[in-house]
Amino acid sequence: MSKPTPSSRLPTLASFQPFNYHLSTFQPSTSLTMITDDQLYQLAIFLGSVSMLLIVLYHFLEVNAENDDKTPLSAERKADTVPGARPVRS
């Protein structure tokens, strides 16, 4: 019994079979249908309404949030809060 040589264990070009798979033979297991115009309209209305509610909720929470910083504002920071105001000179 002879030992196989490394070249005899390797596949040859003659034994190579190309992958024979065509997309035309693919059959999905379930029937896929496209979304209708009415479903798309309802989805757009729903997502738009939810996004507007989330925006309003975010602004409500942001406006009513308590300030954790209890230190009084400096004169320069007070001037930044009022449009057109200048820093107070001491």
Automatic annotation (TrEMBL):
The chain crosses the membrane at residues 40-61. It is found in: Endoplasmic reticulum membrane. It is a single-pass type III membrane protein. Keywords: Endoplasmic reticulum, Membrane, Signal-anchor, Transmembrane, Transmembrane helix. Residues 69-90 are annotated as: Disordered. Residues 69-80 have a biased composition (Basic and acidic residues). It comes from the Eukaryota. SUPFAM superfamilies: Oligosaccharyltransferase subunit ost4p. InterPro entries: Oligosaccaryltransferase (IPR018943), OST4 (IPR051307), Ost4p_sf (IPR036330). Belongs to the OST4 family. This is Dolichyl-diphosphooligosaccharide--protein glycosyltransferase subunit 4. The lineage of its organism: Eukaryota, Fungi, Dikarya, Ascomycota, Pezizomycotina.
